[in-house]
Every structure is written in structure tokens, then in C-alpha cells.
Design goal:
Layout (H helix, E strand, L loop, with lengths): L1 E2 L5 H12 L6 E2 L2 E3 L3 E4 L5 H7 L17 E4 L11 E4 L14 E4 L4 H5 L19 H6 L1 H7 L5 E2 L12
Antiparallel strand pairs: 1-7, 2-8, 3-4, 4-6, 5-6, 5-7
């Protein structure tokens, strides 16, 4: 994944910080909608997830399209981004352009892996940010997901690799 800070400075900075502190390590790709997107970004440790649950950051201006391979922070309304990331798996998500979904990077290697992530649970394993259907994920973390949705794929570790002046 390559982050382009100029697309979304607030988003890039938040992502950098979360990766740097290990927030995403040992988490799950908990929401996977075939032909649309894959979502991750809730810490597997419920104490850590709760700590960040309401740490919103300001929106950046939309400056890229929700095209296949690009990613951004999930949100429920303006200025509600926190930790959850979606990766677009189909160009049909371009219809979200103009709705506040701000892209800040692109998968530069491994979209074939993203395409193979388990999508059988769809919305049941972590959808519903707007409807409050993620409470169990915050309360129990990986224990809940592993018990109720054992086929979810795992994000073992996220690391920062600096290239030039970018991050």
C-alpha cells in the first residue's frame, strides 16, 4: 500500500500513526463485500479498539476517485473518520465520488491477494457503522470475530517502509 499524503494529509497522518504504533497488527479483514470493497481497521484487542473508537479527525478535500485498488477511511458522516480503512475492489465504487469518501493511497502490489480475501460473511461480520452494528467488535475484538466468523482473513502486521520524502 502506498500512501500519497497530498491526497489527504489528515488521513495519511492518521494512518501513519496507527501503523507506527501497531494498531492494525493482528486484526481482521472484518467486512468484505464481493465486487465492491474490503474493510479493516479495528484493533483485535478490544481495549485498544475502545481507546480509539471516538478519536475522529477532520476531513480532507476529496481529490481522487474510488477506483479499484485505491483506499481511504470509512466514515458515517462528515468529520467522522477514525481508524477503519476500505480498499476498493471494483470500479463501480466510483459512484461514491463526491460523497465524502476521501482516498489517500493505492495498493501498489498485492491486489491479487486482496481479491482472494474471504467475502462469504459480507455485512454480517462487521457492517453497520451507521446503525451501530459494530458494538461486539469493540467489546470483544478478535475473540468475537474468531468465534463467530472463523473464516475471516487476518492482517498479521502492518509496517512503514519509507521511500524518499514520502510516507
Amino acid at each position: 500500500m502506498a500512501v500519497t499524503r497530498s491526497l489527504s494529509p489528515h488521513g495519511a497522518d492518521r494512518f501513519y500513526h496507527l501503523v507506527q504504533t501497531g494498531y492494525y497488527d493482528n486484526s481482521r479483514f472484518f467486512r468484505a463485500i464481493a465486487g465492491r470493497f474490503i474493510q479493516f481497521g479495528l484493533a483485535g484487542d478490544p481495549k485498544l479498539a475502545q481507546l480509539w473508537r471516538n478519536e475522529k479527525f477532520p476531513d480532507d478535500k476529496e481529490s481522487a476517485s474510488n477506483a479499484r485498488g485505491w483506499f481511504g477511511f470509512s466514515m458515517t458522516a462528515p468529520d467522522t473518520r477514525v481508524t477503519q480503512i476500505y480498499i476498493v475492489t471494483n470500479d463501480s465504487m466510483k459512484r461514491q465520488d463526491g460523497d465524502g469518501f476521501n482516498i489517500f493511497g493505492q495498493v501498489v502490489s498485492g491486489m491479487d491477494v486482496v481479491d482472494k480475501l474471504y467475502t462469504g460473511y459480507g455485512e454480517r461480520s462487521g457492517g453497520g457503522m451507521r446503525a451501530g452494528h459494530q458494538d461486539k467488535l469493540f467489546e470483544e475484538g478478535n475473540a468475537y470475530l474468531d468465534r463467530e466468523f472463523p473464516k475471516l482473513d487476518r492482517l498479521i502486521r502492518a509496517r512503514i517502509i519509507k521511500r524518499g520524502n514520502s510516507r
